[in-house]
Specification:
It comes from Ulvibacter litoralis. This protein has seven helices and 16 strands. By secondary structure, it is an alpha+beta fold. The structure holds zinc ion (ZN).
Length: 264
């Protein structure tokens, strides 16, 4: 079977194990069903996820012009503390910013390679954790807007990490930690304005990824350097496809690339 389409991050469904889907214009692929099968991935062309033009992808699946223009790629996406919609102030498009920023947000602790703090919209739990390849996570604060989540994250970053080591995550060199104990330890650093939203009583969420074999020395497939790759799929973790020969393919960082995938 052959599938052609523009890559966007895989959709997921939590379960034992998590189910992954590649969504193309005319095809909907359950990636779990491709485990242990031989896949060929070929680069076809670029296609910006916003303007659909065949321009080189700059960041986050967007061409250079779109990245610096559209509200979906503004700075407050990656840095929630820059959010301004709660002050009625526009960055790029106030209607869009109000819609996205003025809704419940979660500050969480997730353990993917180490414990880290992060922010997500409440509707993105546990999707966000799955995308990061976290095997356990816990909500610590639920606030009414993105700004409050952002300032909480910034305050906590002084006391806990905020990055994932993707090699460690993929090699599954992980340990189980007590995230409830971490939450209780970090409580003292939550800013005053977010303290009323602290979540006292909840438990860890455990996530189970569909992986038959972890890579020992993961090397990342770059479609620009290697426009054609072939390998046996052995697992999916985070937004990575893991192959038998230690090759890993980050679907998310290849958003906006049109690929042709052949199975078998
Ligand atoms: Zn574009």
């Amino acid at each position: 079977m052959n599938y052609v389409g523009v890559l966007s991050k895989m959709q997921t469904e939590n379960g034992s194990p998590i189910q992954y889907y590649l969504v193309f214009e005319n095809d909907f692929l359950n990636v779990n069903q491709l485990l242990d099968k031989k896949l060929s991935i070929s680069f076809v062309k670029y296609q910006c996820l916003n303007c659909n033009l065949g321009k080189k992808i700059y960041r986050q699946g967007f061409c250079y012009d779109c990245f610096y223009e559209i509200p979906q790629a503004a700075d407050w996406i990656m840095r929630p503390e820059l959010s301004m919609a709660h002050l009625d102030k526009e960055d790029r498009d106030l209607v869009y910013e109000k819609k996205v920023q003025l809704q419940p947000h979660i500050v969480y602790l997730a353990n993917s390679s180490n414990v880290k703090v992060g922010v997500t919209r409440k509707t993105q739990v546990p999707t966000r954790w799955i995308d990061q390849g976290a095997h356990e996570a816990i909500e610590i604060v639920e606030v009414p807007n993105r700004y409050l989540a952002g300032v909480t994250e910034v305050a906590l970053k002084d006391h806990v990490g905020d990055k994932t080591n993707w090699r460690t995550m993929l090699k599954n060199e992980i340990e189980d930690v007590d995230l409830v104990a971490w939450r209780n330890k970090l409580k003292q650093y939550i800013p005053e304005e977010a303290m009323p939203y602290f979540i006292e009583n909840n438990t860890e969420t455990e996530l189970e990824f569909p992986v038959l074999q972890y890579p020992t020395k993961p090397k990342s497939l770059n479609l620009e350097k290697t426009p054609h790759y072939e390998g046996v799929l052995k697992g999916i973790k985070g937004q990575y496809l893991i192959f038998e020969d230690n090759t890993v393919f980050n679907v998310r960082s290849n958003e906006g690339y049109v690929v042709s995938i052949t199975v078998g």
